[in-house]
Amino acid sequence: MTSPRLSVRDLQVTYTTKHDEVNAVDRVSFDVQNDEIFGIVGESGCGKSTLASTILRLLDDNGEITGGEIRYGDWDLAAMSEGELAKQIRGREISMVFQDPNTSLDPVYTIGRQLIETIRQHLDVSKQEARKRAIQSLADVGIPSPEDRLDDYPHQFSGGMRQRVVIAIALSCDPGLLIADEPTTGLDVSIQAQILDLLEDINANHDTSIILITHDLGVVAEVCDRVGVMYAGNLVEVSPVDVVYDDPKHPYTEDLLRSIPETHEMKSELTVIKGTPPDLREPPSGCRYHPRCTKVCSDACETGDIPQEYREDGSVVRCYLYDPAENPEYEGSAKVDEGQRDGQLESPERGDQL
Amino acid sequence: MTDPILEVDGLTKQFALNSSVLSRLLGNTRTLTAVRDVSFEVGRGETLALVGESGAGKSTVGNIVTRIHQPTSGAVRYRGDDIHELSNEGLREYRQSVQMVFQDPYSSLDPRYRIGATIAEPLKIHTDLSKADRRERVAELLETVNLDPDFADRYPHELSGGQLQRVSIATALSVDPEFLILDEPVSALDVSVQARILNLLMQLQRERNLSYLFISHDLGVVKHLSDRVAVMYLGEIVEQGETASLFERPAHPYTEGLLASVPQANPHVRRRGQRLTGEIPSPINPPSGCPFHPRCEYATEECESDHPPLESVFEGREAACHHWEEVSAFEHVGEMSAEERREAN
C-alpha cells in the first residue's frame, strides 16, 4: 500500500473580522490518493474554496490555520515556513488553477515569458531547456502550433484557450498535485467539456493527482473518482463517485442531489431543502445540518458536538445516523480509526469505477 | 400551438462596429449581425426556451422583445400588434403586460430603495392605487413569492441572492403581466436555491397562465421547465421543437453536440454523440454556407457553400441542416456500459 499523495487531518481555518470569528473550515480530514481526481463539492459559502487555498496557504490576511495538519510527502504544509513553501511547494509540487484565467495571467507579458519564468523559478534548467519544456506544456494542453503561440499575449487567446494556458503553466514543473478551483465555471458547455477532458487526460498520462473544487454535481459525476461533500465548513461525506449518486450516505448529499432538475420528471415540483445555510458566525450546535435535516435521529444531532466520522462501505460520513450509540436502529458501521481511513480503501481501477 | 401571444417574424439585428471617421466617410462601415432572420411563436401559458452558448444572440432577441433594442428588420407582434408601431396607450399596455427578470438581482434592484419601494414602483406608473393600497399589494406580492411581508422595509444588501431574485419576480408580477421574459434567472444561484425559484416560476405559470420566454444556457433547467426549445447558433435558430422530443432525438448536429457536452449528474449515463469541438467563430466574420460547418462532423461540400434554411423536418420539428436525417437517426440516449464509458474517456 502506498501512502496517499495528500493527507489533511483535522484542519481548522478561522477568519477573524472586527467583531467575530468565523470557523470557515472545521475539523476537516481527507486523503487524496496517487493519480486520482478528488472532487470537493458544495454550495456558496460552504468553505470549499477556503479549503483549497489553505492547502497552498494562500489565505487572506485575516484567515489562519488554527489546527490540524496538511501532509504532503514528508512535509506538513500547515507548519512550513513561508520561504520554504514558496521554494518547494507552490508551483513546483502543488499548483493551482482558478476560475478566471484573466486574473491568473499577466496581460503585459507573453505567455512564453510567463511559462519560462515559472519553469526557471523552480527547476535548474537553461533558457533553451525551459523554452523546450514550455512548448511541451502547451502541446500537452492541446494548444495548436505551440511554438508560434509562445510569443503571443494573453489577449490573443480565446477564453477556453486562456484557461488551457493557465493549466499549461500549472503543469510546467510536473507537479504531484493540481488544485483546480471551479476551473470551468463561466465557460460555455462545449469549452467546459473540452477542459474536463483535458483534466482527465492529464490525470491519466501524468503522475498528477487532481483536487477539483466545484458546485456542479454534473462535473463531479463526469470526471471525479471520489468526492467530498462540504456543508457549512464541515466535510460531511467522502465517497466514491458512484456511491454519491446511487446511494448517498449523508442526508445533505441526498437532499442536494434531489434538488437538481435532472433527478425529476419534467415539469414536476423540485425537492427543496428547508431553511437556509447557517451563518457561520453562529453555527448551529450539534450537527451543522440538523436544522434543515429530515433525518434527525438523536438528541446529539441538536446538542452534541459535530458527529464523528463513521465508515460505511467505502465511504466516510459524519452523521449520527451511523452511530450505533445514538441511532439504535442502526448497526454495522464503525468509527474511523486513524490509519484505517481511505488509505486502506482499495483504489479501484478507473474503468471499473466509471 | 393554438393561440400565439407573441410572434417573432424574420427578426434581424445588426450592430455597427466602431470604425474611424474616414472609413465612415468612405462608407466602409463594418457590422456585426447578432441576430439573423429569427422567427418563433410563444403560445398562451407556454414556456419557450432560447438556448445556446454565449454569443449566440439569445439575449439580443430578449432585448428586442422588451424594446431595449430596435430590430434592423423583421417584426415582433404581441397579441397581433407590432410592438414597434404601438400608440402611446398601446405601448403603456405592452409595458405592463410584458415584464422581465434578469440574471443578476444585485444589479437589477436599486440598492438605495427599500424592497417595498422597488416593488411598488411599477404600481405607481401603471395603476392609480393609493399609497395604502400599494403597501397592501406589496405585502400580497411578497407572500406570493414566499417572502415575509416584513421584507418590504429592508434594503437589497440585507437579502440573499435567492431572496433578491424572488423580489425581482414579485416586482415583475406587480402589474399582473401575462408574459415574462426570463433572462438566465437562476444562473447565479446555488442548486438548492435554484430549485425554489424554478418551483415558484412553475407554480405562477400554472396559477396565472403566464407565458415565458426563458433564456438560458443551462440545458438541465431548460429540459425541466420548458414546453418547447429553440436552439440558437451564431445569431440563427438552427433547431426548434418540443422539449422532450428535442432532447431525445436532436436533428441538428449543434444540438447533438451541445447535449453531449453537458455533464450528466449521473456517473452511469453519458449521452452518445459527438461532443462539440473548437469554439464559436467570430460573428463579425461568420463562416460561409452553414455557419456550423467548420465544427460539424456531418459536414460535406454542400454545407460549405449552401446555407440550409430552417424548415420542418418531421412532425413538430424544424431544423436547418442538410444532414438532419442522419443526425436524427442516431440513438442518443441510454445507459452507457462500462466499456463504452471507458472508450469515451
TrEMBL record, chain A:
<dbReference type="InterPro" id="IPR013563">
    <property type="entry name" value="Oligopep_ABC_C"/>
</dbReference>
<dbReference type="GO" id="GO:0015833">
    <property type="term" value="P:peptide transport"/>
</dbReference>
<dbReference type="Pfam" id="PF08352">
    <property type="entry name" value="oligo_HPY"/>
</dbReference>
<keyword id="KW-0813">Transport</keyword>
<keyword id="KW-1278">Translocase</keyword>
<keyword id="KW-0406">Ion transport</keyword>
<dbReference type="GO" id="GO:0005886">
    <property type="term" value="C:plasma membrane"/>
</dbReference>
<dbReference type="InterPro" id="IPR017871">
    <property type="entry name" value="ABC_transporter-like_CS"/>
</dbReference>
<keyword id="KW-0547">Nucleotide-binding</keyword>
<dbReference type="GO" id="GO:0005524">
    <property type="term" value="F:ATP binding"/>
</dbReference>
<feature type="domain" description="ABC transporter">
    <location>
        <begin position="8"/>
        <end position="257"/>
    </location>
</feature>
<dbReference type="GO" id="GO:0016887">
    <property type="term" value="F:ATP hydrolysis activity"/>
</dbReference>
<dbReference type="InterPro" id="IPR050388">
    <property type="entry name" value="ABC_Ni/Peptide_Import"/>
</dbReference>
<comment type="subunit">
    <text>The complex is composed of two ATP-binding proteins (NikD and NikE), two transmembrane proteins (NikB and NikC) and a solute-binding protein (NikA).</text>
</comment>
<feature type="region of interest" description="Disordered">
    <location>
        <begin position="328"/>
        <end position="354"/>
    </location>
</feature>
<keyword id="KW-1003">Cell membrane</keyword>
<dbReference type="Pfam" id="PF00005">
    <property type="entry name" value="ABC_tran"/>
</dbReference>
<dbReference type="GO" id="GO:0015413">
    <property type="term" value="F:ABC-type nickel transporter activity"/>
</dbReference>
<feature type="compositionally biased region" description="Basic and acidic residues">
    <location>
        <begin position="332"/>
        <end position="354"/>
    </location>
</feature>
<dbReference type="InterPro" id="IPR003593">
    <property type="entry name" value="AAA+_ATPase"/>
</dbReference>
<dbReference type="InterPro" id="IPR003439">
    <property type="entry name" value="ABC_transporter-like_ATP-bd"/>
</dbReference>
<keyword id="KW-0067">ATP-binding</keyword>
TrEMBL record, chain B:
<comment type="similarity">
    <text>Belongs to the ABC transporter superfamily.</text>
</comment>
<keyword id="KW-0813">Transport</keyword>
<dbReference type="InterPro" id="IPR003593">
    <property type="entry name" value="AAA+_ATPase"/>
</dbReference>
<feature type="domain" description="ABC transporter">
    <location>
        <begin position="6"/>
        <end position="259"/>
    </location>
</feature>
<dbReference type="Pfam" id="PF08352">
    <property type="entry name" value="oligo_HPY"/>
</dbReference>
<keyword id="KW-0067">ATP-binding</keyword>
<dbReference type="InterPro" id="IPR003439">
    <property type="entry name" value="ABC_transporter-like_ATP-bd"/>
</dbReference>
<dbReference type="InterPro" id="IPR017871">
    <property type="entry name" value="ABC_transporter-like_CS"/>
</dbReference>
<dbReference type="Pfam" id="PF00005">
    <property type="entry name" value="ABC_tran"/>
</dbReference>
<dbReference type="GO" id="GO:0055085">
    <property type="term" value="P:transmembrane transport"/>
</dbReference>
<dbReference type="InterPro" id="IPR027417">
    <property type="entry name" value="P-loop_NTPase"/>
</dbReference>
<dbReference type="GO" id="GO:0016887">
    <property type="term" value="F:ATP hydrolysis activity"/>
</dbReference>
<dbReference type="GO" id="GO:0005524">
    <property type="term" value="F:ATP binding"/>
</dbReference>
<dbReference type="InterPro" id="IPR013563">
    <property type="entry name" value="Oligopep_ABC_C"/>
</dbReference>
<protein>
    <submittedName>
        <fullName>Peptide/nickel transport system ATP-binding protein</fullName>
    </submittedName>
</protein>
<dbReference type="GO" id="GO:0015833">
    <property type="term" value="P:peptide transport"/>
</dbReference>
<dbReference type="InterPro" id="IPR050319">
    <property type="entry name" value="ABC_transp_ATP-bind"/>
</dbReference>
<keyword id="KW-0547">Nucleotide-binding</keyword>
